[in-house]
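Dear Dr. L.,

I hope this message finds you well. Following up on our conversation about the binding site, I have prepared a predicted three-dimensional model of the protein together with manganese (II) ion. For your records, I am including the exact sequence and ligand specification that went into the calculation, followed by the structure tokens. Please feel free to forward this to your student if that is useful.
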Amino acid sequence: MVTIDEERFRESFESYSRIGATENGGLHRLTLTEADKRVRDAFVEDLAELGLEVRVDRIGNIFGRREGTDLDADPVLIGSHLDSQPYGGRFDGQLGVLAALETLRALEDEGVEPNRPIEIVNWTNEEGSRFPNALLGSSVFSGGTELETALSLTDGEGTTVRDALSAIGYDGDHPVEPFDIHAHLELHIEQGPYLEEHGNSLGIVEGVYGMSWLRATITGESDHAGPTPMHTRSDAMAAAADAVSEINRLPNRLSADAVSTVGEFSIAPGSINVVPDTAEFTVDVRSYDDAVVAEAVERVHEEIEHACSRHATSAEVEALWNIESTAFDPEIRDVLEGVADDRGIAYERMPSGAAHDATRINEIAPTAMLFAPSVDGRTHNEDEFTEWEDCVVTAGCYAEAVHQLASE
Ligand code: GLV
Ligand code: MN
Ligand code: MN
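The resulting structure of the complex is given below.
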């Protein structure tokens, strides 16, 4: 059995949490920014201290390899992401990377050398909030996204991923290509309310929702806010508001697990006394059932069209990104359940509504995830919190499961 060092784990968590910390106890560490560079540097230093061979690939994913006793065996891959949402939380992604780091340190402390190598990874741009393709590093690694497409993505200021990588010195030279992986395991916070509500300390993730991201641009005509009668207007804002409230009502009509979100919204020209001629917003729709996601996308198109015809405007809707739902490997889930049973930990099996890099790796290798509870289910904000004892319980199970997988 492997035992993690709770104190060291906490110290790492606190020290990484200072990089890009916000005043209100959150993290603002957008991918490929200066803060991301500093946390990457800390991570690389920690890997080097463990004596690991460190590689940075062309999309900036950072890998560290600890050899096993069998030099020909396929590795177990562990890790998550260190980028955050704007004014996001300290646990999303970071907890998984640090649980993986603590796992390697615990194995080292105890002189445990499983037969399989273990590779730790920090994926680039998991969040997708700066460059609008979430799971970017893992998608290129798994073959789901072309490297050139990924490098050419731009942020809101027109900076490409290519330039952002080189600006922080993480435009590595290692090719981005999958290698044979025996098993992949990612630890994450639940980001929903169920573990806490049901009094469970651990979630064993059955799979991840499918999702689609869209961007709608509504075009009307700008005009004076006073003399222009309501019935002659072509108001892009009014059409967008109408569409957004319909999009918000959609999930109820589709399935119990469907969700829809308009997370970005802007209008132009943006003057108090001018009827807006342009409105632009994003849509995120999700469900565990891909058919529901497809239907939601169709209905989003229809609702936008109807709203436009009610307000004499027109719209263009662009598909930004899409990923199908995934089911994780039953054998790794069995390993996780065995570890939880041996430790007497109350767990539940659950799907994930949040996207994870593990989804991408599941396309090329047996993969599973485990969740720590989120207080009040709050996440993607500065209040995101997980009780430290729950982090320790989950990370302890993670370390032991990694040990068992690496000994197979
Ligand atoms: C990433 O956190 C997502 O679920 O969109
Ligand atoms: Mn995450
Ligand atoms: Mn996230």
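In brief: The chain has two domains: 6-208+325-406, 210-323.

With kind regards,
A. P.
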